[in-house]
Amino acid sequence: MTAHRRQMKLGAFLWATGHHIAAWRHPQAHVKAGVDIDHYIRLARTAEAAKFDMLFCEDAAGVREADVNIASQTSRSIGFEPISLLAALAVQTSHIGLVSTASTSHNEPYGLARTFLSLDHLSGGRAGWNLVTSASHIEAANFGATGLRPHADRYERAREFAEIVTGLWHGKLDGASGSGHDGQCFSVRDPLDLPRSPQGAPVMVQAGASDVGRDLAARTADVVFTAAQTFEEAKAFYGDLKGRLAAYGRGPDDIKIMPGVAPVVAETESEAREKYEELQELIPDDVGVALLSSYLSISDLSRYPIDGPLPELPASEGMQSRQALVIEQSRRDNLSIRQLARHFAGARGHWRIVGTPAQIADELEARFEGGAADGFNVMPSYFPGELDAFAALVVPELQRRGLFRTEYEGRTSREHLGLKRPA
Amino acid sequence: MHLAVSLAQGEAPSGVQADAGLDFSLLARFVQKAEAAGLDMVLLADSAPVAGGDAWSRQVPFEATTLLAALATVTSRIGLVAAASTVAHQPYNLARRFASLDIISHGRAGWNATMVPDPREAANFSRPEGFSRDDFRRRAEEFIGIVQGLWRGWDADALLFDKSGGRFFDPEKMHLLDHKGEFFSVRGPLNVARSPQDTPVLVMSGLSEHDMEIAARFADVILLDEPLDAKADDLKRRALGFGRSPGEIKVLMNVAPGAETAAGPDVIADRLEEPFRSKSCDGFNILMPPVLSVLDDFVGLVLPELRRRGLLRSDYPGATLRSHLGLAGEEEQ
Ligand SMILES: Cc1cc2nc3c(=O)[nH]c(=O)nc-3n(C[C@H](O)[C@H](O)[C@H](O)COP(=O)(O)O)c2cc1C
Q1: pTM for this one?
Q2: Where is each Luciferase-like domain found (chain B) (predicted)?
C-alpha cells in the first residue's frame, strides 16, 4: 500500500429505516428504527468499526409529506431529532464524526452555535454542522404564518447566520469588547459561554448547489454534500466549486466534496440486481410520484398522465439545484413520470450503483481519481442490512486498493478529514 | 417524598473541594450515583452568560439538552430534566428536541421551563430590546401550550409498522396542531413519535405570583423556594379550576442543605420531614454543586435516615419519570 496516497472520505448517511423510500417494507429492514435508540447505537458502532469519517443526519423540522395518506405509506414522518440523537451517539462512540443538518431558516445562530459546540465537547471534537436553508413549505408553516421565504432571502439569511456561528466558534464575536453582531437578520451580543472547541471549531458542512449555494459553500464550508447522477455532472460541480475557493483566499484542499452515493451491493451482480428489484417492487406509485413532486418543488404532478413525459415546470423557489437535476435526467433518458418516480424513489436524485464489491469500488475509484469527488456520503437503502453489507464488502475492497484508511488518523473530525484547525 | 437533585449554579460551599475539570465522565458518575440512590430525577441547569459571575454552570461545557441525551445512554432509571428557555428556542424545535430525548431515555425526560426572563439572553437572540415582563409571560404561556399540543399530536397507538399492508401509521391517529396565536403560528404535527411516558414531564420554576395560573394549567412539577405553604395550596386549588386533580401536580421545595451536612443527617431529615408531613410540599429539589463528595454525603447519610423514618421509597416503582413521580396513567403505576 502506498504510504501517502490520497484517500477518500466516507460518510455514513443515516436516515430512518433506509434511504430507499420503500425501505421500511423490506423484510430485513428494522421497521422501528425511528423509535429505537439501540438500533442507532449499533449502526454508529458498525460505521465506526469500518472507519467511516462521519455519521451524517439529514433534517427537516416538520413531516415530509403534505398529504397524510402518502405520508402514512412511508416511514419518514417520525424519527429522532438529529442533534439529540448524535449527542446520545457521541458518548457511545469514540472516533467517528457526528454531523447533523440544521436549518438557517428556522433557528437562531447563537443557540445553534452553542448546541453544536456542546455536541463537540461531548464527543471530544467530532461534531459538524450541515448548513441547509430548507425548501419545504411544511417546515415553514411550523415557524410562522408567512410561508416559505424566497430562495434569495433564505440564502441572505444563511450567509449572515454562518458568519455569526463561525465568529462565535472562532472566538471572534465578543460584545464585551464592542464587536457584537448587529445585522440585517440577527443581532448577538455575547461570546458563547462554553470553552473553545476541542478541534478548533466544529466542521462546517454544506448542502445546496445553486449558484448562491455554491458561493456560500466556497466561503464557509469544510465539506460539501451534493447530489449528482453522472460522472460529468459530478466533475463539473467539483471543478466549479474548487474554482470558487481562490476568491475567498482558500485552497482546493480546504474543502472536501462528498457527493451522495446509494450502493446496492452483493457478492454477485445478479444478487445485487435482485436485491434492488425487490426494493423497487415495494414502491406504491402514488408515493413515488409524490416524492418526485417534492423534489421538483411542484405540488400536483399526480394530475399528469403517469406514463407520459414530465410537463414543463416553472422555475422553483424551492430546491433549484435538485429540480434541474431531475429535469436533466428526464430529458437525457427520455423517462415517463412513472419511470422517473421509481428511479428517484431509490435514492432521491443521488447516484446509485448496483453491483459486486469490486464493481462498486471501481465506480467510486473512477469518480475519486477522475476529479469528481473527494469522498462519498454513503446512503444504504435499508438499515441495518445495507450498512452492514457496505462495511463488510465494499470497505475492505477500498482498503485493499489503498483508497480508504485502515485506522483513524486521530481523534477529531478535522483530523480524519485532513482539515486545518482554525486559528 | 419525591427527591430531585439540581446541579446548582452558584459557589461551592466553603470547605468543599471542587472536582477538577467538569467533564462528561464526572457528570455521568454523579448521575449514576443519584440513580443508584433511587432519586426521582436530576435537573440540569442550562448555563447562560451571567454578568461577572463565576457560576458553576460556567464550568459545565455543555448545553443542557445535549447533555441530557448523552446521560440518557449511561443511565437506565433516573429521570433527566433539562432547562431550556422559551427565548432561545422556537416552540416546534424545542418540542421536538424533548420528544426525541424522551424516546432516547425510554420515557425519562423532562423540560424545565424557567419563567425568569434574562435580558442578556434576549440580546443574543436578536431581541436587543428584550421583552416586557407581561409580553414574556404571555409568550411563554403560548409557547408551553404549543409544546404540549405538539407532544400530543400522535396517538399512542398511531404507528402500525405494517410492512405487507404498506401502512406505516394510521392516518386517523396523526393530528395537526394548526395553532395560530399572538406570537406563534405552528402547523404541526411533530415528526417524532408519541412519548413512551405519554408526554415528557413539564417542570416549571422561577415563578412569580403572576405565573401561578400558567403553572397550575400546564405543569407536572413545580419548583418553589421556601416558604411555600400558601403557594402550594393555592396552586392545587387553581389546578382544579383547569379540570386537573390536585394530585396531577407535584410541588417540590428548593433546598440547599450544603452547610448543614456538617450538622448531621438528623437535622437535615427534620428539616425535610416537617414541611412534607404538613403537606406543604410533595418533596424536595436539592440544590448541590456537581461535586461527588457532596452527593456522597447526602446519599450516604441523609437518605438512610429518611428511609428509616418511612418517608422515602427504596426503589423505583416503574420505568418512566412519570411513574417515579406518581404521574403515570394507571397501566404504568
Ligand atoms: C445534497 C443535498 C442535501 C440536502 N439536505 C437537506 C436536508 O437534509 N434538509 C433540508 O432542509 N434541506 C436539505 N437540502 C436543501 C438545501 O439546503 C437547500 O435548501 C436547497 O437545496 C435549495 O438550495 P439550492 O437551490 O442552492 O440547492 C439539501 C440539498 C442538497 C443539494
Answers
A1: 0.95
A2: 20-255
